[in-house]
Amino acid sequence: MRFENLPINWKLVHLVEISEINMGQSPPSATYNYENEGLPFFQGKTDFGLIYPTKRVWCNEPKKIVNKDEILLSVRAPVGPTNIALEKSCIGRGLCGLKYIIDENSKFIFYFFRSIEKELSQLGTGSTFQAISKSQISNFLFLLFQNSTA
User: Fold this and answer.
1) Does 77 map to a domain?
2) N or C: which end of the chain has fewer CB within 10 A?
3) Measured distance CA(68)–CA(141) in Å, rounded
4) What is the domain extent for residue 92?
């Protein structure tokens, strides 16, 4: 993606400058259940809906947690698809959570990622399945609008 001649008040920043990046980790399979016990557990794109994930598995001992309105980014097989967490949830190693730290409006980062999904998928590496690392995500360039009154 190329960014040339940016309008006034827009700048390029690395994603790590505007969000907390929380790489998922799978809890022990013995802690999974289908009885709504614990937190909803999302493992990857399989759980994704159009905008919000579909609850089908829960976890009693989550290792990695995202909160409501955090962006869920698929980081392996496939790389790039996104959803938004509807509530506090557990995430497995196929996802990462992005918490937008600039302000409370996470939908901007969500739609930005939706617009560059093909570019993200091309960053994936691996022989068995495509994956993207935290370092690659952290260094990803993001367009940021800065209000001139700030």
Assistant:
1) yes
2) C
3) 24
4) 10-145
For position 86, what pLDDT does the model report? 96
Looking at the domain assignment, is residue 4 inside a domain? no
Q: How far apart are the C-alpha atoms of 3 and 40, rounded to whole Å?
A: 38
| 17: in domain | yes
Query: Phi and psi for 84 in degrees, rounded to 5?
Result: -120, 130
Neighbour tally for 72: CB within 10 Å: 28
Distance CA 90, CA 60 (A): 9
Residues 35-56 have pLDDT tens digits of 999 999 999 999 999 999 999 9
Structural Rg of the chain based on CA atoms:
16
- Look up the CATH number of the domain holding residue 59: 3.90.220.20
* Residue partners of 116: CB distance under 8 A and separation at least 6: 1, 80
For the chain, the domain total comes to: 1
Q: Using CA atoms, how far apart are residues 60 and 39, in angstroms rounded to an integer?
A: 7
Q: Is residue 5 part of a domain?
A: no
Q: Which residue has the tokens 């190693």?
A: 93
pLDDT of residue 73: 96
